[in-house]
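Recap from last week: sequence in, structure out.
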Amino acid sequence: MRDCVILVSFDLPSQNSAQRSDNNYFRRNLIKSGYSLLQKSVYYRHIRNSSMREYEILHIQKIAPRDGEVFVLPVPLKTLNKWGGFKAAYFLDRN
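Predicted structure tokens:
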């Protein structure tokens, strides 16, 4: 898989201040790592090669909070173009 977009979706608890702090840390690190906000709990980043994709997945596992759920979905640009909801150019133009 060459060019792809990594979608990161998460559902994190925010019942106490420690959990909210962990959530903010996770979001800030996603943004520092070059991810852009798609929706409140969905971020994306364009990746150009497979070694970078593997690095990003490991990085997300490292910074993810222990509580809650984090989903990482690498999607090839060709597949994005086949989906009816959006085009790959949307992700490329925004970076």
